[in-house]
Specification:
This protein has strands at 12-20, 26-31, 41-47, 57-60, 67-72. The chain is mainly β and 95 residues long. It binds zinc ion. Zinc ion binds next to loops.
Amino acid sequence: MAKKNRQPSAPQEVYVDLMLMPGTKVLFWAVAECPYCEARHYHPAGTERGDPGERLGEVQAPCGNGPYILALQPRPLRKKGKKGKRRDSWDDFDE
Ligand SMILES: [Zn+2]
């Protein structure tokens, strides 16, 4: 278990939307507006086989301006019960 470090400047939380890359089983988190450069950023969220929630948390902004925390928007998420065809060809999607 990690110690709780109280850093003087905690990274800012940004709200993300889970997206499915068209034609693939690859999920990613879309940051609507970067707190540093105000651009849209994307972060790999694994595949449908994994748990995208595991990819939430502190990450480095792709623009290189610093870290932020990927967080879900404070609204209830409706889970879609639809399950696509399972593909075992996606082993690991680690960057
Ligand atoms: Zn940025």
